[in-house]
Amino acid sequence: DIQLTQSPSFLSASVGDRVTITCRASQGISSYLAWYQQKPGKAPKLLIYAASTLQSGVPSRFSGSGSGTEFTLTISSLQPEDFATYYCQQLNSYPRDTFGQGTRLEIK
Amino acid sequence: EVQLVESGGGLVQPGGSLRLSCAASGFTFSSYSMNWVRQAPGKGLEWVSYISSSSSTIYYADSVKGRFTISRDNAKNSLYLQMNSLRDEDTAVYYCARENYDNAFDIWGQGTMVTVSS
Questions:
Q1: Among partner residues A34, A44, A98, which is closest to B108 by beta-carbon distance?
Q2: pLDDT tens digits along A37-84
Q3: How far apart are CA B110 and CA B7, in angstroms?
Q4: Helix (H) / strand (E) containing A11
Q5: Residues of A with CB below 8 A from B103's CB?
Q6: Which residues are CB-neighbours of A85 under 8 A, at least 6 positions away?
Q7: What pLDDT is attached to residue A98?
Q8: Closest residue of B to A97, CA-based?
Q9: How far apart are the C-alpha atoms of B112 and B22, rounded to whole Å?
Q10: CB-CB contact of A38 with A101 (8 Å)
Q11: Which among B59, B95, B111 has CB closest to A94?
Q12: Which residues on A lie below 8 Å from B46 (Cβ)?
């Protein structure tokens, strides 16, 4: 099975900062990767799919890049509502049981 | 409005059974593959099961294989998860999620809590 490793697991940043979260796959998955945002007590929300395609309605300060085994999610200028936990997910194959372990983004 | 609403969660004893439902509205349910994803308290996301639009293809995570059964009724716009032989480690919020044509989970329900405890 494909394993996903996110880094860092925890990130402290300030409003206006540019932040980058990395997701590494244990084997190549082309561009079959998605990113989700989850706030406490809420369902996850799709941000990015196909590694770099912004989901409709998601602010343009979010961007994704990468292919193969290394991927990044970048938030260009953090807003107060962006403080949440972020997960990557591989979309390459079933069992689709691979989410990254999550990156918790908190206010500094 | 495109929406998924889960129901059926609750408290059950180890070894017991529970059936979760997910009611879809606002889109052509029969055109989309669907998934169940769960999240144990304080933990990350864990994919549970997948069913194709016509029910012809089904997958399960190893952790639930042989105990859980996914199904759907396209006439009723509904997705189901039959959970048998429940264990303490099945305690989680269970989400249903629509899979878009790029295989990402673009619509999620609000979740239903399943607690397995004696």
A1: A44
A2: 999 999 999 999 999 999 999 999 999 999 999 999 999 999 999 999
A3: 10
A4: strand A10-13
A5: 32, 34, 49, 91, 96
A6: A37, A38, A39, A102, A103, A104, A105
A7: 80
A8: B47
A9: 10
A10: no
A11: B59
A12: 97, 99
